[in-house]
Automatic annotation (TrEMBL):
<keyword id="KW-1133">Transmembrane helix</keyword>
<feature type="binding site" description="axial binding residue">
    <location>
        <position position="65"/>
    </location>
    <ligand>
        <name>heme c 1</name>
    </ligand>
</feature>
<keyword id="KW-0812">Transmembrane</keyword>
<dbReference type="GO" id="GO:0008121">
    <property type="term" value="F:quinol-cytochrome-c reductase activity"/>
</dbReference>
<dbReference type="GO" id="GO:0005886">
    <property type="term" value="C:plasma membrane"/>
</dbReference>
<keyword id="KW-0813">Transport</keyword>
<dbReference type="InterPro" id="IPR009152">
    <property type="entry name" value="bc1_cytC-su"/>
</dbReference>
<keyword id="KW-1003">Cell membrane</keyword>
<keyword id="KW-0472">Membrane</keyword>
<feature type="signal peptide">
    <location>
        <begin position="1"/>
        <end position="30"/>
    </location>
</feature>
<keyword id="KW-0249">Electron transport</keyword>
<dbReference type="InterPro" id="IPR009056">
    <property type="entry name" value="Cyt_c-like_dom"/>
</dbReference>
<feature type="binding site" description="axial binding residue">
    <location>
        <position position="162"/>
    </location>
    <ligand>
        <name>heme c 2</name>
    </ligand>
</feature>
<keyword id="KW-0479">Metal-binding</keyword>
<feature type="binding site" description="covalent">
    <location>
        <position position="161"/>
    </location>
    <ligand>
        <name>heme c 2</name>
    </ligand>
</feature>
<feature type="transmembrane region" description="Helical">
    <location>
        <begin position="243"/>
        <end position="262"/>
    </location>
</feature>
<comment type="subunit">
    <text>The cytochrome bc1 complex is composed of a cytochrome b (QcrB), the Rieske iron-sulfur protein (QcrA) and a diheme cytochrome c (QcrC) subunit.</text>
</comment>
Amino acid sequence: MRQLAARRRHPLATAMLLLLALVVTGAAYTAVAPGQADAAPTINDAEGDVDRGQELFLANCATCHGLQAQGGTGGPSLIGVGAASVDFQVATGRMPLAQQAPQAPQKPRVFDDQDTADLAAYVASLAPGPAIPADEYLTVSEDPDDIAAGGELFRINCAMCHNVVGAGGALTQGKYAPSLDGVEPRHIYEALQTGPQSMPVFNDDNITPAEKQQIISYLDHVNTEPSPGGWSLGSIGPVTEGLFVWVGAMVLLIGCAVWLGAKSS
């Protein structure tokens, strides 16, 4: 007992107890917190040929991303980005990059579906990463509750860059948030998962697959909803649209006044 009491009075006893508490807390959190693999149980791997994907990668991508996809001066590492990132970048035509720029623009795609699947399969084979989303979360819901929930999620997480109706907007240093009108549900889901360009990553811990589907449903709703006024003016908001019409009317009236004055003199 005397030895135990003496150890309790040791100067390092408090520090050791704190260290032990931190270790136990960390181990408990690691055991309880869901991992990435557990958070996305419904995502399937891309179907493609890994060997052919490697051949395509070496011929078309290795110059910028390195022979082992480890990254280089012209492009980032692709290890761990997953099949979803490759499918988004290649299927939307953003990759291969046409030229160095602040942001990769969307353009006509270079690779067909099979080539894209092969490239995605090869990159996915390098390390675990987000996979191609399952079809069950890409179906647009017409349930008003889902659309309303998706609208709330979009306004909280996306509207500050993409506009409240996904019309897009300018960012800093020559970058921009593109319009989401006409974007396929699969690519919206993949962008949320992988965070391309300046976009943050919304993994399944932040926004669940069901919530991603609600966002997709909301964007489909606002993109297909008819404009009550007949002309949306880019859906930039009622105040701005009203100001645009008011300025146009004033310019027309001033022009008429100037023309009448010149005619009378």
